[in-house]
User: Which sequence fits this backbone?
């Protein structure tokens, strides 16, 4: 009998006999670091805001100027925080910082003999081949460390597509046969995917979590070096007060021009930004939902997320669960660290502007929900800071839009009223500047604060010979940074409009469906880009034309804002092209260390995916091909039925089946309808209902081969001929 899952240990039962015997505390000195960091950002914001307020004062005060000043202070403060992350991170990378998780204790000789760790892959209608090959690479890399017996792998499926469901099962069994991993790699599909990803993890932990001291949460596109996995467990063993350690995944395998820019930015800028973040966060850090190791018991004990009060989209299930789970661990004095200097953690990213915006839309709703979570009783101030910064990441776009509109209103009002621009002496006379020079000074300071981290990242590369070589040399890195900056300048106004729309629709009560990500590099079509970007283009043309009509000199200052909007359609289409990405790589642009010196895991993954693509394994299959396979093929049918029957080990499975409706006589009637009328006669949910019944599936297999062909639907007759031909 196939064993898809180990024998469960009920979390509720085990929880009665297990207690948290340790009450860890945050690392000493965190408060001083937090004070110094945010004092720097506040001081910079105060000084620049004073200069900006003086500029507004020189031409007379008004309500619109008050609004403009408030918006400026908010926007500049969070920009200053980003700048300080770069400054502090650069200094720490140059001077060293012993207050990071990998330096607190010597963990290299730490034994993991008595540990057990689950490595979980929650998936939802994903590219099955890519998921399984990523798992294979991680498994084989871990096997080379000699520590494989301490780990189990779990594929936690929430897939609702029947064809992908069948493919997941078939490839799972093929994978365990090829690797000899029966009893090491498990597959489990939930009958009802309540709670989305966090619910998937919770369901796994409630049933099997007590078997494992730790679990490592990976994403569908994650890959992790075996030694990195082992090091994470050693770090947890050496630091018993730590509840979660987050790695910093490197973006890899990008093919499109947009994907390569994102990948390059991640690898170039992340090291100094994360070092700066770790300076003040220390053991009060954050969680990004994947590529992290978690101590199972405190996570189960404290991180069962509540339902938010009120109606959706703000109420109900917490969508961005990771920030909240970290906050709950910190609330109970468990440390949450970021092992930013631990290499060997990888993930992939969207390959186009539209796909990236679609992911942003989901995150936006989840982060805005944190506005309610922030006021949760007992949360630490640092956790509230993490939540606030996540919220502001999506409010910055609407606030920037309001800032521009307010400025345009002030300027347009003056033009239409004919009032003269009388500049008076400011209350900072030591500047001794004209009004135009004063405005240019504010602009120059803002640009310096915005781009200083990029400059520091380049300096960091220049001072490190090994990293220079890994990025293809200083000249290519500089050219890539300039190109990335130009693209970011064009992309920023689009992000502004997208985030404005996201926030507005969410405030109007419009939720979002949490669908699977498009992780491919097929490219955006011109027609699709036109449908998605026509509003951006129209906004840019109208807004730019209006400013040009009012004043030519002001128009040129706004060109960077309008250009990205007007060029949105070609920018989206062309940057999604893998051919443009290949051309950039040929020119030596946007190179990353994983490209110039590929780690064995990524090299193996690339070769395997190319081989499978050449064999047609990654080709798009016809609708209902999986359903035909599961009914016709005795091998696939047996795997599926065995998995259904073994799912009785999950105590919640019977309840879920009852709610779904399986096991009732109506299911057999649906099976009969499937045979006589074909799959098109059943709704998707009805197909899932039939496929979830352990008695109906073997009956369908027998009936399809025993019945005369003329009694079957024409669709099945054609499917049988195709199956026989193969």
Assistant:
């Amino acid at each position: 009998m196939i064993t898809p899952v180990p024998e469960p240990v009920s979390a509720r039962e085990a929880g009665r006999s297990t207690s948290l015997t340790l009450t860890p505390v945050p690392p000493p000195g965190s408060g001083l670091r937090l004070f110094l960091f945010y004092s720097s950002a506040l001081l910079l914001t105060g000084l620049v805001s004073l200069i900006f307020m003086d500029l507004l004062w020189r031409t007379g005060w008004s309500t619109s100027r008050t609004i403009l000043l408030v918006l400026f202070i908010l926007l500049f403060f969070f920009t200053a925080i980003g700048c300080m992350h770069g400054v502090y991170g650069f200094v720490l990378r140059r001077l060293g910082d012993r207050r990071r998780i990998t330096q607190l204790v010597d963990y290299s000789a730490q034994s993991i003999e008595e540990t057990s760790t689950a490595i979980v892959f929650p998936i939802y209608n994903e590219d099955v081949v890519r998921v399984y090959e990523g798992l294979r690479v991680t498994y084989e890399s871990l096997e080379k460390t000699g520590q494989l017996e301490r780990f189990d792998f779990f594929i936690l499926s929430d897939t609702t597509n029947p064809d992908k469901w069948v493919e997941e099962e078939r490839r799972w069994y093929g994978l365990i046969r090829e690797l000899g991993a029966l009893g090491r790699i498990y597959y489990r599909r939930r009958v009802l995917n309540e709670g989305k990803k966090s619910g998937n993890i919770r369901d796994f932990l409630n049933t099997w979590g007590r078997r494992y001291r730790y679990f490592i949460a990976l994403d569908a596109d994650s890959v992790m070096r075996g030694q990195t996995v082992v090091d994470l467990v050693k770090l947890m063993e050496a630091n018993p007060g730590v509840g979660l350690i987050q790695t910093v995944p490197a973006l890899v395998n990008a093919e499109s021009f947009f994907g390569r820019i994102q990948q390059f930015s991640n690898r170039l800028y992340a090291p100094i930004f994360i070092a700066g973040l770790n300076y003040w966060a220390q053991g009060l850090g954050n969680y990004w939902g994947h590529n992290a190791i978690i101590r199972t018991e405190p996570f189960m004990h404290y991180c069962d997320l509540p339902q938010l009060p009120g109606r959706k989209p703000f109420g109900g299930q917490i969508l961005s669960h990771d920030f909240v789970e970290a906050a709950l661990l910190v609330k109970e004095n468990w440390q949450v660290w970021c092992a930013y200097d631990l290499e060997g953690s990888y993930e992939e990213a969207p390959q186009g502007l539209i796909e990236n915006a679609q992911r942003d839309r989901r995150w936006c709703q989840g982060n805005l929900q944190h506005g309610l979570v922030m006021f949760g009783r007992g949360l630490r101030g640092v956790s509230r800071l993490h939540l606030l910064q996540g919220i502001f990441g999506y409010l910055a776009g609407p606030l920037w839009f309001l800032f521009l509109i307010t400025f345009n209103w002030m300027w347009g009002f003056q033009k239409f009223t004919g009032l003269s621009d009388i500049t008076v002496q400011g209350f900072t006379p030591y500047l001794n500047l004209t009004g135009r020079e004063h405005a240019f000074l504010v602009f120059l300071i803002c640009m310096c604060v915005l781009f200083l981290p990029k400059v520091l990242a380049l300096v960091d590369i220049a001072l490190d010979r090994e990293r220079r070589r890994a990025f293809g040399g200083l000249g290519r890195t500089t050219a890539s940074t300039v190109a990335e900056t130009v693209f970011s300048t064009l992309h920023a106004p689009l992000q502004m409009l997208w985030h404005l729309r996201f926030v507005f629709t969410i405030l109007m009560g419009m939720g979002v469906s949490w669908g699977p990500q498009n992780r491919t590099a097929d490219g955006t079509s011109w027609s699709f880009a036109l449908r998605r970007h026509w509003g951006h283009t129209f906004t840019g043309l109208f807004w730019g034309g209006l400013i040009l009509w009012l004043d030519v000199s002001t128009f040129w200052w706004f060109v960077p804002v309008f250009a990205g909007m007007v060029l949105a359609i070609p920018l989206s289409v062309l940057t999604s092209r893998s051919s443009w990405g290949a051309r950039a790589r040929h020119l030596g642009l946007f190179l990353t260390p994983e490209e110039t010196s590929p780690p064995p895991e990524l090299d193996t993954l690339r070769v395997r995916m190319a081989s499978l693509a050449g064999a047609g394994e990654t080709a798009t299959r016809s609708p209902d091909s999986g359903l035909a396979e599961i009914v016709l093929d005795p091998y696939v049918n047996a795997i599926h039925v065995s998995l259904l029957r073994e799912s009785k080990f999950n105590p919640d499975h019977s309840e879920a089946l009852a709610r779904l409706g399986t096991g009732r006589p109506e299911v057999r009637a649906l099976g009969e309808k499937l045979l006589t009328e074909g799959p098109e006669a059943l709704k998707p949910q009805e197909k899932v209902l039939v496929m979830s019944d352990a008695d109906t599936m073997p009956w369908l297999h027998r009936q399809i081969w025993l019945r005369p062909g003329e009694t079957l639907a024409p669709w099945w007759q054609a499917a049988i001929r195709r199956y026989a031909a193969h």
The chain is about 60% helix and 5% strand. The beta strands are 117-123, 151-157, 185-189, 214-217, 223-224, 242-247, 250-251, 292-295, 335-339, 345-347. Confidence is low (pLDDT under 50) at residues 10-19, 517-521.
